[in-house]
Design a protein that fits this description.
alpha+beta; 6-stranded antiparallel sheet; 4 helices
Amino acid sequence: MKKIGFTLAEVLITLGIIGVVAAMTIPNLIANTRSSQYRSAFKKAVSTLSQAARMSQAQYGFDYAGINQTCGTNAATEHPDEIMSFCAILNGTLTGATYYPNVTDVKMNQKGQAVPYSVNGTFMESLDEKSLSYYFAYTLADGTLVGVTKKIGSNDCALSIGTQMSTSNSTVTTMSYCYGFIDVNGASLPNREVSCSSGSNKLEANTCIVKNDAQHMTDIYPVRFHDGIVEPATAAARYVLKTAK
């Protein structure tokens, strides 16, 4: 009987083609999956923090615009019935959140060793208080890390109706300490600020586009807290939030 089958050369050629196709498509699939995860996590964190402010307004009579004190030495136990601080808002409205007096108290794994949390980002480096020693932190129930400037509450975190938020601190002078960042995957790397693959990172430019690659679609998103909401503080963060489903 005559046997029919593939020759060794045909099998090798087929496997080679499959390997080339896989090498071309798998990185894109991984990038798209990571991008979707980051977008969803950022949108969820913004929603959670905004809802916390609105709940505080409804239950205790103040939101981010109403805070008039910085978080104190007992920040982990501050309650909105007793003090009007940022920490009181989160303590009184969120469950499962953990407070850290210094964001560097959060440990991340680097080459098998636990090291203090760090961030790499151009926007944060442009701020007056760019050192992480000026930030405290909360980890939310889902592991998202929120870093907030320790001076939040030392001035008015309010934005007048109709006023467009600007990237520049000098434009929104009353909100110079009302900023922070959201790390959507906690202390896990890359701990790098999201950036524009094209266009400007200034909010007022409205030209930023963020590609779904490891260089630009990353895990750190600068934000500002004001009134009853949380808003992206850079154009790259705003682009990610707007494109999140």
